[in-house]
Design goal:
Chain lengths: 433, 245
């Protein structure tokens, strides 16, 4: 038996066209085989498309990694109520910067994916919920949607298939929580973006209480390639349980930060080699595999395969493959404090553990970083984290404690060192019995 | 009382509502629309949205106060948002923000550093600038970054940031690294509401403005240079067989 072919270190699929001039235009996209998957998809049945995506093993690229085909199959087969497809383009997880370059460089692959996915889920209305601060993406998406209508890829009777679809590009207004799918739906309904109790899941009662699927940008943009290449082709990249290519966003203290689309399961050691190594040769201290909500790793984890299983086995999560690299010059308690301030600001206020927890965690960390902490503060931090993790209404609370618990796990000494000043303070006369 | 919103704004609000199966979904873009007229969400703006959507002003206020992009005080000609989240901060974002606070603050009557969402100059007048710190702006590979009216200025230093705000104060509009030619905060808000330049040439010049940061295409370029590709797709792909339901 021959060994399976090993894919190249970088496998551009989604990012391949980004080098082309005016890659965001319909003209360039169609010249590069864009909109060739759509006619094939429209000739197949919706069930066949759902099965194809299931077979491909495509897992959600927004952080949770739920199998996309399985999610699609939760949509009811009838059309008693209108069905909706909603694209989560509210990229805001600290460190994450893949969907915004994707939408700027190649909005049409997302739109083609939207048409195919909507057809597979019998949706005739699709919303792309874009983070408000991503104005240039909104501009490019609007232009691409306009071009797609003119070319007959959107609107009534698309490519004579009898299938109708409208896409609306919807602007957010600055709220991290709207990346949580049910908060996003509340926001899209014109409300405060606060998460909903599940069940019912969106496939049963989502937008306007109708069957809805919410998918990430990178997930849906992968679909045209899966239709064209087939599930076996897709599985030639990545690992058995985490197939396909993935855009790894490398940022921070490396020589060449940027977007590197590589097979799932690539390690940080490989990624650092691609990114030219640590900046100025200053050694690695800590890094996140997939955004600030994924527990941090250290130099011990250079060879952890960055796929959904590998990251989880090593005690973290793959998240959004937002690889933030920090060198020895950065204080861990300070970084943890900054991230905690972020979660405090973005906590929606709906549930007590997250709202109050992030508030108090910030106070303690600020006190410690200012040099006014005590050893007992470390225990208090962990105790509060324990009361937030798994007890919050949505995953924001879980994400908020990740930097703290992992930071203390790997760098307890650094937290302790901050307490030295208090320890050295002379005891007040009479205070010691 | 005269209506602060002209006929065109009323028509635009109706056009936003028509995009959605249910009217209330129009609220977020409509709040962007009222900001495009007044440079902030005023009580009149809240009443305008409430009246159009048949909501109470309390319901609209509840939404407007939830989202950071809706400003409760008039914004300057330009809104400068500096990313101070952990990664950008470690790369110099905190220092940039501190420097801009002091630098812009020295131009105010009291000379004190500018606070979050405070303005130097008079809103509505050329060269006025509102400064804020922002959460992760999703451009981490290009950090430290800031945005002016939500257009990206990448890979900054303190000096480059000071130069940029000085140009804004002088009425100039330096081009962003990624994004359309700079206009003003109100125009950005109008585009967020979904209204773009009507003249085709101007419109394309905003859409087609350059964005190819080297960081964005680094992986793709490295692959092209080394002859690395994804596996070739098979010539013919059959759809899976499924049982007819």
């Amino acid at each position: 038996m021959t060994e399976p072919r090993k894919p190249a270190p970088v496998t551009p699929v989604l990012t391949k066209t980004w080098l082309s001039p005016r890659s965001w235009t319909l003209d360039t996209y169609t010249k590069l085989e864009g909109y060739t998957a759509l006619p094939k998809a429209l000739k197949a049945s919706p069930e066949q498309l759902v099965q194809l995506v299931k077979d491909s093993g495509l897992r959600g690229r927004g952080g949770a990694g739920f199998p996309a085909g399985v999610k699609w199959s939760f949509m009811p087969p009838n059309e008693d109520k209108p069905h909706y497809l909603v694209i989560n383009a509210d990229e805001g997880e600290p460190g994450t910067c893949k969907d915004i370059p994707l939408m700027m460089a190649d909005p049409h692959s997302l739109i083609e994916g939207c048409v195919i996915a909507s057809y597979a889920m019998r949706a005739h209305h699709c919303f792309i919920y874009v983070r408000g601060e991503a104005l240039h993406c909104i501009r490019r998406l609007n232009a691409a949607v306009r071009e797609a209508y003119q070319a007959g890829y959107l609107g009534k009777n698309i490519l004579d298939s009898g299938f109708d679809l409208d896409i609306v590009v919807h602007p957010g207004a600055g709220a991290y929580i709207c990346g949580e799918e049910t908060a996003l739906l509340d926001s899209l309904e014109g409300r405060r973006g606060q998460p909903r109790l599940k069940p019912p899941f969106p496939a049963a009662a989502g937008l306007y209480a109708a069957p809805t699927t919410v998918n990430n940008v990178e997930t849906i943009a992968s679909v045209p390639f899966i239709v064209n290449g087939g599930s076996d082709w897709f599985r030639e990249m990545g690992t058995e349980k985490s197939p396909g290519p993935k855009i790894y966003s490398i940022s921070g203290h490396v020589e060449k930060p940027g977007q590197y689309e590589a097979p799932l399961g690539t390690t940080l050691r490989d990624l650092l080699e691609l990114a030219g190594g640590m900046k100025d040769g200053i050694p690695l201290k800590f890094w996140t595999p997939g955004g600030s909500s994924t527990p941090m790793f250290t130099a011990e984890h250079l060879d952890v395969p960055l796929d959904f299983e590998g990251a989880a086995e090593a005690g973290s999560m793959l998240g959004t493959t937002a690889v933030q690299v920090f060198n020895e010059t950065v204080s861990v308690p300070w970084a943890v404090m900054k991230w905690t301030q972020f979660y405090k600001h973005e906590s929606c206020g709906k549930c007590t553990p997250c709202r109050e927890g992030t508030y108090w965690l910030t106070q303690i960390l600020e006190r410690m970083v200012a040099g006014n902490g005590t050893e007992a503060d470390i225990d208090t931090l962990l105790d509060v984290c324990d009361n937030v993790l798994g007890r919050s209404f949505c995953a924001l609370g879980d994400g908020a404690v990740s930097p703290i618990t992992s930071g203390i796990q790997y760098f307890r000494d650094e937290f302790l060192a901050l307490c030295d000043k208090q320890k050295a303070a002379p005891a007040l006369a009479g205070a010691q019995a | 009382m005269t209506d602060v919103f002209d006929t065109q704004t009323h028509e635009r609000a109706e056009a936003i509502i028509a995009r959605y199966p249910q009217a209330r979904s129009a609220l977020l873009p409509m709040l962007h629309l009222v900001q495009s007229v007044q440079g902030f969400v005023s009580q009149a703006g809240i009443a305008f949205c409430a009246q159009k959507l048949d909501l109470s002003t309390a319901e609209v206020s509840a939404v407007a106060t939830f989202y950071t992009m809706y400003k409760r005080k008039p914004c300057g000609e330009h809104l400068v948002s500096v990313c101070t989240n952990t990664l950008c901060a470690a790369l110099g974002g905190d220092a940039i923000y501190t420097r801009l606070k002091e630098h812009l603050g020295s131009d105010t009557p009291d000379g004190k550093p500018l606070g979050h969402e405070e303005t130097v100059g008079t809103p509505g007048e050329s060269g006025s600038v509102t400064l804020e710190h922002a959460e992760c702006l999703a451009a981490c590979d290009l950090g430290p970054v800031l945005q002016v009216n939500y257009e990206y200025y990448d890979n900054l230093t303190e000096d480059k940031a000071v130069e940029l705000v000085d140009a804004l104060r002088a009425g100039d509009k330096p081009a962003p690294t990624r994004g359309a030619p700079l206009r003003d905060f109100k125009t950005a808000e109008l585009e967020l509401a979904g209204f773009f330049p009507e003249d085709e040439e101007t419109y394309r010049s905003t859409v087609d403005a350059p964005t190819a940061a080297e960081e964005t295409v680094r992986g793709a370029r490295m692959a092209a240079d080394n002859g690395w590709t994804a596996p070739a797709m098979p010539a013919k792909v059959a759809m899976p067989e499924v049982q007819k339901k």
